[in-house]
Amino acid sequence: MADHQKVHPLNTSSSHDHQRSDVEAPQAPTVPLVPRGSSKSDNGDPSSHDQQYYPPFQRTIPFSIDSLQITRFNLSNNSSLSAAFDVTITARNPNKKVGIYYEGGSHISVWYTGTNLCQGSLPKFYQGHRNTTVLNVLLSGQTNDGNTLLTSLQQQQQQTGIIPLNLRATQPVRIKLGKLKLMKVKFRVRCKLDVDSLAANNAINIRNSS
């Protein structure tokens, strides 16, 4: 799955400032999340830096869902429902001191009520300082008893005009503070999406997200 994903980093600071402050950043950087109270590091205990560094980066949700395209959403011969989504996600790192290593082992899924429609993973990459990165993530899945699910979706759309979805993601990251790399931690992201349709190959409008 990760081989098909695209990463489009957009540098929001000048190239001179970026290279001077973050020598490990690629031509285009990427995203930040920071846990409170982390002190372990590959290069020793950075506790002496806590007062200086941690207050500016409280843990935040750095992701936004920009668009959703459904490339497959149909019943198979055995009445299972096959789905494939292309999700565009923007990850932002406004901090000028912190870099983020997005590690392997991530998991992202889309749910309708209690049914997992599709799943996949985020790519592995490094996001530098003051950076915005656009990710195109492909998700796929198959659900049993597709007839019941389709009936529920149709009734939901007819009654309310929207279909509520839940996007869930778990992402292992390592925070980079100067030359220090903190211990690996997992961040969990939850996002509610209201869309107008789940029809394949149609323009899907996101009515609301939170």
UniProtKB/TrEMBL annotation:
First-listed, main subcellular location of the protein, grouped into a coarse class: membrane
Coiled-coil zones: none
GO terms of biological process kind: defense response to other organism
UniProt biased composition (Polar residues): 38-51
Top-level taxon in the UniProt lineage: Eukaryota
Pfam annotation, one family: LEA_2
GO cellular component: plasma membrane
Protein name in the entry: Late embryogenesis abundant protein LEA-2 subgroup domain-containing protein
Organism this protein belongs to: Dovyalis caffra
